[in-house]
């Protein structure tokens, strides 16, 4: 039986106009997490972090995937409307998880405190190929504008991944082909992570994939 | 924001580098709220090694809340200890106020229960 998609109907409220609504990329990530449900339950993550949580759909879903085990699910976003939306979405999701939100870029302020302590890290980055100037130009754009190869934002985080993850910790990442997934896989493999493309799907002109890295 | 999250937040202003002062951030003018939650002992015991206990203790004293000086040998069997930790890190929410760095005096605001850890361009 499939897990229900978290309710994000409150996003129609104008105060959430700048928040990225769940779309095909979001749903592919949910599917990847659900596919790994047994393994994730076995891992029993204590600290989960979602970077750029937007609507909070993925954070909330994560709480359901891990239920009945409790976990701290800490969601960050630079957009205050997104942290607020995340709180609302996670707030009415039945789960044993402890949902917390923090307005921050990536994991800033959580490092170095959480280095080696994140059991599950999830990131659906702004992956769309755009001119570099479009990155963060508005709150809306920060959710999707990825600059050159759609990689400029992601590339700021990649060097930190292996230090952030706990032993056996996992990182799930959404990418499109333009982001050069193989290059990301090679880069993180060289840092000792076990890398795999676990799911892919074509959605309109986007060829989406979920990459999974295990420490 | 629950206290559990505060125990993970550190000042990240560029020229603020004294690790003894960047963490834990000191609460200022905070409005607290106790929200009752079901206690999950298995989760608390799993979380204990991930907490920075000295920092948590410092924060509890600052807020005038009771917390044992150290983690007992068998925390999972210590009812009183578990309840104290649960009440402090899971049920205590910070609604408004700020967190100040003792190193550089930067103030991180907490508004409507969500901390703002973003810095201006020149502070990064």
UniProtKB/TrEMBL annotation, chain A:
Signal peptide: none
Keywords for the protein's UniProt record, in alphabetical order: Methyltransferase, Nucleus, S-adenosyl-L-methionine, Transferase
EC class: transferase
Origin organism lineage: Eukaryota, Fungi, Fungi incertae sedis, Zoopagomycota, Kickxellomycotina
Record GO cellular component, one term: nucleus
Protein name: HemK methyltransferase member 2
Subcellular location: Nucleus
UniProt source species: Coemansia asiatica
Enzyme nomenclature, EC number: 2.1.1.297
Chief location category: nucleus
Entry's Gene Ontology molecular function annotations: nucleic acid binding; peptide chain release factor N(5)-glutamine methyltransferase activity
UniProt feature coiled coil, ranges: none
Entries under PROSITE patterns matching the protein: N6_MTASE
Protein family: Belongs to the eukaryotic/archaeal PrmC-related family.
GO biological process: methylation
From TrEMBL, chain B:
Any one of the GO BP annotations: rRNA (guanine-N7)-methylation
Classification lineage: Eukaryota, Fungi, Fungi incertae sedis, Zoopagomycota, Kickxellomycotina
A molecular function (GO) term: protein heterodimerization activity
Entry's family note: Belongs to the TRM112 family.
InterPro entries in the record: Trm112, Trm112-like
Protein name as annotated: Uncharacterized protein
């Amino acid at each position: 039986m499939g897990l229900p998609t978290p309710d994000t109907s409150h996003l129609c409220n104008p105060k959430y106009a700048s928040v990225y609504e769940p779309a095909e990329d979001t749903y592919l990530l949910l599917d990847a997490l659900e596919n790994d449900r047994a393994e994730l339950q076995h891992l029993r993550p204590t600290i989960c972090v979602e970077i750029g949580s937007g609507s909070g759909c993925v954070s909330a879903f994560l709480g359901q995937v891990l239920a009945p085990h409790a976990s701290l699910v800490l969601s960050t976003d630079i957009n205050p409307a997104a942290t607020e939306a995340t709180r609302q979405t996670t707030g009415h999701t039945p789960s044993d998880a402890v949902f917390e939100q923090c307005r921050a870029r990536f994991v800033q302020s959580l490092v170095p405190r959480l280095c080696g302590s994140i059991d599950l890290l999830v990131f659906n980055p702004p992956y769309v190929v755009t001119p570099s100037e479009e990155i963060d130009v508005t709150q809306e754009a920060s959710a999707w504008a990825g600059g050159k190869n759609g990689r400029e934002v992601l590339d700021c985080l990649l060097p930190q991944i292996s230090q952030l993850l706990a032993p056996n910790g996992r990182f799930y990442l959404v990418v499109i082909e333009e982001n050069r997934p193989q290059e990301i896989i090679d880069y993180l493999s060289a840092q000792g992570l076990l890398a795999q493309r676990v799911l892919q799907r074509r959605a309109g002109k986007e060829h989406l994939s979920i990459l999974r890295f295990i420490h | 924001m629950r206290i559990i999250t505060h125990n993970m937040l550190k000042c990240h202003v560029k020229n603020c580098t004294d690790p003894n002062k960047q963490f834990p951030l000191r609460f200022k003018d905070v409005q607290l709220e106790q929200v009752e939650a079901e206690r999950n002992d298995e989760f608390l015991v799993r979380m204990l090694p991930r907490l920075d206990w000295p920092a948590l203790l410092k924060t509890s004293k600052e807020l005038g809340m009771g917390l044992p000086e150290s983690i007992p040998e068998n925390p999972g069997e210590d009812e009183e200890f578990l309840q104290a930790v649960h009440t402090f890190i899971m049920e205590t929410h910070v609604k408004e106020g700020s967190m100040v760095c003792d190193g550089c005096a930067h103030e991180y605001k907490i508004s409507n229960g969500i901390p703002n850890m973003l810095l201006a361009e020149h502070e990064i």
